[in-house]
């Protein structure tokens, strides 16, 4: 298990500070101060506080610029500076800003790059699922854009994450895919990273021959012109090759590699102090294994001091274990136990069970009496970690599968949505077409109704004219009869009485008196006859005035003759029909006629009551029946009902229906006089 700590420490150390250096080239802009701020923010020889201030000044300038490709590129540079300071919260904050701006501008490449940066963030926070998911999204975008360099970088990011999570097979596949993307591209730094990672993978898998081959390939791929000095590629390869020989227990062959790497001490301390600490520790440990005391335990202490200052938990634990082994070999059990316990405490504080393995293994050796207890816990943790490693490998595969599946589902959903748009569009057009047809039919029905109404009005008008003609004829006949009565009857009798009274003027006897009295009685009879003729003339005038009543009475008589329902009618004699227009009379007649028709068809009524009443300033018509009734709210308004409403509206009146099932119906019409 000691090997895996060395490898993980080296990998984290190498990629933690070299990954972003490819972004350190500053594009010179017209704003010299921005260029200067970005340059000083990446000055590794400066203090962290000063570098952070320069980053803040650069960001203050960039954030006020227009959202274009230059602004997004500069924001990525700001994120890089925070990355190199290990300020993960600021790194994530800036990355999210760039991602949002890239989405607004539909800048696909910047979106993919932002996903890669977020993958780095989640990886640093020990959230491998989220990290892998973001790397995978970036890979998919670069694959669609045929951007081989960015595609290779995304795949290397995945490979590093898989390696750190002990998914060595998955990491190997991802590195090989990255190399395939680099076939037609010259990128010495990514070739170096790919070969170096393959060497680490095979070293971990125990295939040391392949590990040495790939580390040598990585060493040969180093181009000092194109690879920045910050990478410190050669010392890294020297350390990795030495580590393979150390794992082969060929420490004499390993030591020269460590010494070669330490020749660049000055640059290592400046750019990669953790690699410098690795080389010191590995050199000391190889010398310790071959029982060579040169520089011991100073090499362990110097490495421990650097790692502790950089807060490299794994490195600190390894240094403490090596010091424990060293003092145990010297017979100083107290110090050996001290450093082992300190290593155990450091591991427990890190809350990473993987860090507990080395301290437990060392304690089992130093304290044989508790060896069973330590070994039991070691086995338990190791088994759980192996299970977790298998689960994480499966989880990475599942993320890739589910992401592709979601992509396919989204494609299918797009097709379905398009089909739904077509279907709904067709339905909408068909619905619009049907609506137009229905509206046209309604207009036709309305026109037909108006034509029928006009025809009905003409019929009623003709009926009233005919009735008026009949009344006029009767009036003429009656006038002739009255004239004949007056001429032949009343006038003749009055003439006879006058002559007789004249003849009696000369007589004053009792007989003459009796005859005069009889003639006076005759005059009274003539007076009564004249009164009767006057009454006949008054009735004639009433009939002439109230011819509408006669028309309505005719309608009622037809109703009584045709249907079994009992009809009770009442027309207020005080209504002045002569003050109403013919239009009002026609519409009232039609409302009564239509109401009687509806009652006869649907109501099944035994009694019908029609009342005309005179109000203060209006005419009231009420038609009621004791039929089956209906639900006024739910009933459809047929053309008959609409006709009645239209007629009353034409008269500026109010039309009201009251009805309930089983309780009959009441129609109330109010028309202003």
UniProtKB/TrEMBL annotation:
Reactions listed under catalytic activity = ATP + protein L-histidine = ADP + protein N-phospho-L-histidine
Mark the TPR repeats by their residue spans: 192-225
EC code: 2.7.13.3
Q: What InterPro entries does the database record attribute to this sequence?
A: HATPase_C_sf (IPR036890), HATPase_dom (IPR003594), His_kinase_dom (IPR005467), Sensor_HK_TwoCompSys (IPR050482), Sig_transdc_His_kin_sub3_dim/P (IPR011712), TPR-like_helical_dom_sf (IPR011990), TPR_rpt (IPR019734)
The UniProt record lists the keyword Transcription:
no
Provide one Gene Ontology cellular component.
Answer: membrane
Q: Name one GO molecular function term.
A: ATP binding
The protein's enzyme class: transferase
Signal peptide range = 1-18
Arranged from A to Z, the UniProt key words for this protein are: ATP-binding, Kinase, Membrane, Nucleotide-binding, Phosphoprotein, Signal, TPR repeat, Transferase, Transmembrane, Transmembrane helix, Two-component regulatory system
Query: Which chain regions cross the lipid bilayer?
Result: 420-437
Q: Which residues form a coiled coil?
A: none
Pfam families per UniProt: HATPase_c, HisKA_3, TPR_8
Record domain Histidine kinase: where: 588-673
For this protein, the record's CDD domains field holds:
HATPase_UhpB-NarQ-NarX-like (cd16917)
Stored PANTHER family: NITRATE/NITRITE SENSOR PROTEIN NARX-RELATED (PTHR24421), NITRATE_NITRITE SENSOR PROTEIN NARQ (PTHR24421:SF10)
Task: Report the protein name in the record.
Answer: histidine kinase
